[in-house]
Amino acid sequence: xxxxxxxxxxxxxxxxxxxxxxxxxxxxxxxxxxxxxxxxxxxxxxxxxxxxxxxxxxxxxxxxxxxxxxxxxxxxxxxxxxxxxxxxxxxxxxxxxx
Length: 98
Description:
- The protein has helices spanning about 35-40, 45-50, 65-80, 80-90, 95, and strands spanning about 15-20, 25-30, 55-65.
- It is α+β, with helices and mostly antiparallel strands and about 100 residues long.
- The chain has a single domain (about 15-90), classed as 3-Layer(aba) Sandwich (GIY-YIG endonuclease).
- Strands 2-1-3 form a three-stranded antiparallel β-sheet, with helices on both faces.
- A hairpin with a 4-residue loop joins strand 1 (about 15-20) and strand 2.
């Protein structure tokens, strides 16, 4: 599975998908992907990921505004697992799915 590179801007509005140890997917918003993944793995991230550690970053997308990022996060969270996996494999589908 090809993973798109994380955002190169540390303070960009970013939506990300991580895979938990049990294979489940978690979608979130952050302004610093690397810091957020480290927090998830340290048990200080979202309540869900605290009990499903460690997590692995599968994909991330940067947005110009926080509002755009939060709308994308909400749209991705509503997708079935199969569509999330398609989005991870083919990041250009983002516009089509949202």
